[in-house]
Design brief:
- The complex is a heterodimer of chains A (146) and B (272).
- Chain A is built from nine helices and one strand, in the order αααααααααβ.
- With 146 residues, chain A is an all-alpha fold.
- Chain A folds into two domains: 4-95, Protocatechuate 4,5-dioxygenase, Chain A (Orthogonal Bundle), CATH 1.10.700; 98-145, no CATH class.
- In chain A, helix 1 (12-22) packs across helix 2.
- Chain A is globular and about 55 Å long.
- The termini of chain A are far apart.
- Chain B is built from ten helices and ten strands.
- In chain B, strand 9 (244-256) and strand 10 (261-271) form a beta hairpin.
- The chains are: A mainly alpha (146), B alpha/beta (272).
- At the A-B interface, helix 1, helix 6, helix 8, helix 9 and strand 1 of A face helix 2, helix 3, helix 6, strand 8 and helix 7 of B.
- Strand 1 (143-144) of chain A pairs antiparallel with strand 8 (174-179) of chain B, so a sheet runs across the interface.
Chain lengths: 146, 272
């Protein structure tokens, strides 16, 4: 089963997140009255505990839609500079250390490769290998010509 | 044409290796140049809703933004995307035609007079339509809340849309844009991962231009294996594919872990 298929479409926490993202008033209560907010949406104690603990794996296992989990972390930690180094994402590294380590290893390899690249001119050579365009390309576009 | 809409492309662009930044920027400049050279009257865009417009208990398969004007990004997304508010003209005549003609052809389109915009359209419009000069008809799909349409369904919808646009009574020039993908798993256990092998395989299929082969090989299961809940954004590319024939030109590909998405840009020259 793909991970997105594990979501429980009827979970109150999923319903709550839809409304929280749209309402500044609700977002403002996230860090001041999370328990009260959860009560209003009928969130269970188990859901609340996983949320308050920022327990990514537990949230997934309860059926929170996976797209909402980083959004929850953003509400706790803020959205600025939401890179892979952002503290909000440490919760993922704790929940899924193997998967995260594998990905960060790939990122490190890419950084190393980039560091030894010859600079912008080398991109043209890479493009010629089949995955890039050239400025000489014809000015066509995906255009429906009626 | 089609491109990734990863929020990192605007929100934390500089976090990627310099080589990836340069490659992405060059490809998006190329797309913009081609788009402007074609002088379209309207962009018909396909992307997906990230649980912004529709709640999890009601996720229509397809939704058309029919407003006179589109305003974005939505408040929740502006800081994340690091984008100022923008206003893009809509094309209500074409948009409402799609909704109504779709119904006559047994294809259900929900519609929104005030669609909200996340990364799906905000990121590509920032790079391809920076002066908001080209009107947009946004069509979003559900590819994250099960059940997700199968690739064959997306292609079938694309074929119907293609025939509908052909039959449209106006003489507007319509540019086709798909956004989303490539491999990524937003919020899932493999949140940081991208599947370079899948991405290059998929792009090679597009470059080959054999639609039947692509639909046979690129199953929903294969997309989910390459990143659940995110890679299936490529269904928007498959809708656009139905408007085309022949090979796509792959302008760029980057396994952009920093942007948490396989990142690619393609363009087609020949329309079906």
């Amino acid at each position: 089963m793909a991970s997105v298929d594990r979501c429980d479409k009827t979970l109150p926490l999923n319903e709550m997140m839809f409304h929280v993202r749209k309402s500044k008033a609700l977002r403002d209560r996230w860090n001041t009255d999370l328990a009260g907010l959860c009560r209003e949406f009928g969130v269970s104690d188990e859901e609340y505990r996983a949320l308050a603990d920022k327990d990514v794996r537990a949230l997934h296992e309860l059926g929170v839609h996976q797209y909402y989990v980083p959004q929850m972390l953003r509400l706790f930690y803020g959205a600025s500079a939401n890179s892979n180094a952002h503290p909000a994402l440490e919760a993922y590294k704790r929940a899924y250390p193997d998967e995260s380590a594998r990905a960060l290893e790939l990122a490190a390899r890419l950084e190393r490769e980039s560091a030894v690249a010859e600079g912008p001119d080398s991109l043209g050579d890479r493009s010629a290998g089949g995955l890039g365009g050239t400025r000489e390309a014809s000015p066509h576009v995906s255009l429906w010509r009626k | 044409m089609a491109m990734t809409h990863a929020p990192g492309l605007t929100g934390w662009f500089e976090r990627a290796p310099m080589q990836q930044q340069l490659l992405a920027k060059k490809a998006m400049d190329e797309m913009r140049w081609r788009l402007e050279a074609a002088k379209p009257d309207v962009i018909l865009g396909f992307s997906n809703d990230h649980l912004l417009n529709w709640p999890i208990n009601n996720t229509p398969e397809w939704t058309v933004g029919i407003g006179e004007e589109h305003v974005g990004p939505a408040d929740w997304y502006d800081e994340w995307l690091a984008l100022d508010k923008y206003r893009i003209p809509g094309h209500p005549t074409l948009a409402r035609y799609i909704v109504n003609e779709g119904a006559r052809r047994r294809l259900a389109f929900s519609y929104l007079r005030e669609m909200q915009f996340d990364d799906g359209f905000s990121v590509p419009m920032h790079y391809l339509n920076p002066y908001n000069a080209i009107p947009l008809v946004p069509v979003s799909m559900n590819c994250t809340v099960p059940p997700v349409p199968l690739p064959a369904r997306a292609y079938e919808v694309g074929v119907t849309l293609r025939e509908m646009v052909k039959a449209y009574p106006g003489d507007e020039r319509v540019a086709i844009l798909a956004t989303g993908g490539l491999s990524h798993e937003p919020g899932g256990p493999r949140y940081f991962w991208v599947d370079e092998a899948f991405d290059t395989w998929f792009l090679a299929l597009l470059a080959k231009g054999d639609h039947e082969a692509l639909l046979r090989g690129c199953t929903l299961e294969k997309m989910e294996d390459a990143g659940s809940g995110g890679t299936a954004e490529l269904l928007a590319w498959i809708v656009a594919l139905a408007f085309t024939r022949g090979p796509a030109e792959v302008l760029a590909y980057m396994p952009a872990v920093a942007w948490r998405s396989g990142t690619g840009m393609v363009a087609w020259s020949d329309m079906a």
